[in-house]
Amino acid sequence: MTINQHKASVFFHKEYGATSYRAVLRLLIIILLIFVTPMLIVGDKSTRFGFDPQHRQNLAKLKPDYVFIGSSMLLSRIDIDHFNSVMDGQTGYMLSDVGALSSLWFLWFKNYLIASGVKPKTVFIFFRHTAMTNPSDNSSSVFIMEKIQKSSLDSEPVFDQVMGYHKDFFDHLEEWLLKLYPIQEYWRKGVDWVIDSASFLVSMPGYASYKLQALMHPEQITSTKRRKIMADREALKSRIAWEVFGFTNQRDQKGRISKSFTLDNQLNFKQRLKISFLPHIVRLAKEAGLKLVFVRIKSRPNRNNLIQENGPLDSYIADLSEYSKLNGIPFHDFSNDPKIIFSMYNDGAHIAPKHMKFWTENFVARLGEHLK
To answer: Do residues 116 and 67 make contact, with C-beta atoms less than 8 angstroms apart?
Structure first.
C-alpha cells in the first residue's frame, strides 16, 4: 500500500466510519423509541377478554328449533324475525358476526350451542368460497381476536392446535405488533361509544316523552312500555351500527379474496381439510346428535346474473360435497338459484336489507325438508 493509499484509507475511516457509526446509533435509538416506549406505558397493553356466556344463556332460555351459524354472509340474508314469523311457532337463533371465520364457528358450536344443552332440529352453517377450511384469514386482527377470546374457554387445545397449522413467523409478529399498538382496539371502542351516544340522542324525544308521562300519569306506565322503550333503543343502536358502521359501508375486499383464490393450497379441499376445524365440527355434531346442513351462498353475479368465479372453485366444491355425503350431511348450493339476482345485492356478496325477507322466504322454500 502506498503512502497516498494509506492516507486515503485513514481519511475514509475517519469520515465515513464515524458517519456509519452515528447512523447505526440513530437507528438503534429509533428502534428503542418505537418498540420500548409502548412497553413502558403504564397499564395493560395486551387486554385479554374473558369468556362471554351470553349466547349460551340465550340458547338455554330460548331453546330454538333451528340454529344458524356464519358470518356477514348469513347476517345479510336471513331475517331472523321474519323467519320466526313464517315458521308457524318454530323459532331460529343466529350465531353470527361480521368477519366471523370458521375458527369462530367451531368455538360457537362447541362453547355455546353444545354447552347450552339445547338440541335444535337442524344447525345450518352458511359459508362462502373456501371459508369452511380457511380459519385463519385476518384472524390476527384485534377486532377478530376480541371475538375469539370472548368465545374461548381457558383451555382450547383443539383450537390452538388447528390455528397453529396456519401461523408462520410473520403472523406471530403481526399479533405482537397489534398487542403493542392496539389501534384497532381503540378504534372499536370509539365506534361503540359513537353508536351508543348517537342512539341516545336520536331516541331522546321519545324517551323524554316517556319520562314526562311517567311523571304526570304514573298509573298509565306499565312494564311493557318500559321494555318497549329499551327495545326500541337497542333496535336503533343495531340500525346505526349496521347502516353507518357496518360492513355495507366498508370497502369491498375483492382484492384480498381474489388473492386467496390464486393460492392453490386454499383451493385444495383434501389438503385443507386436515388442518381445518371442519372435521372437529362434524365430530362434535355426531357426538351430540345434532343434524348439520351446509349452505353455500351465492356470490354476487354480474348484471347478466352469471357467476364468473365458479371455475377455480369447482373442484373444491365437488370435494366438499363428496365429504358432506360421506358424513351424511345435506349440502345446499344457492349458486345456481335463478331467484337470487344481481339487483338484490348491496355490496360485495351481501344482500341489500330490503331483499332479506324475500331471501329468507326463498330459503324456507328451498330447504323446507330440513325445516320440519
So the answer is: no
Residues 6 or more apart whose CB falls under 8 angstroms from that of 151 comprise 51, 52, 104, 107, 108, 111, 112
Residues paired with 68 in a beta bridge: 94, 124
The label of the residue with cell 325477507 reads 357
Provide the grid cell at 93: 337463533
Per-residue pLDDT of the chain (372 residues; tens, 9 = 90+): 565 555 555 544 555 555 566 666 777 767 666 656 555 554 454 567 889 999 999 999 999 999 999 999 999 999 999 999 999 889 999 999 988 889 999 999 999 999 999 999 999 999 999 999 988 765 555 677 888 999 999 999 999 889 877 665 555 566 566 666 665 555 556 656 666 666 666 666 666 666 666 667 666 656 566 666 666 666 666 666 555 555 444 444 333 333 333 445 678 899 899 999 999 999 999 999 999 999 999 988 888 877 766 667 889 999 999 999 999 999 999 998 999 999 999 877 899 999 999 999 999 999 999 998
Residue carrying the nine cell digits 380459519: 135
- Count CB-CB contacts under 10 A for residue 108: 23
d(CA 233, CA 11): 76
Q: Identify the bridge partners of residue 139 per DSSP, sorted by sequence position.
A: none
Q: What CA dihedral angle connects 319, 320, 323 and 325, to 10 degrees?
A: -110
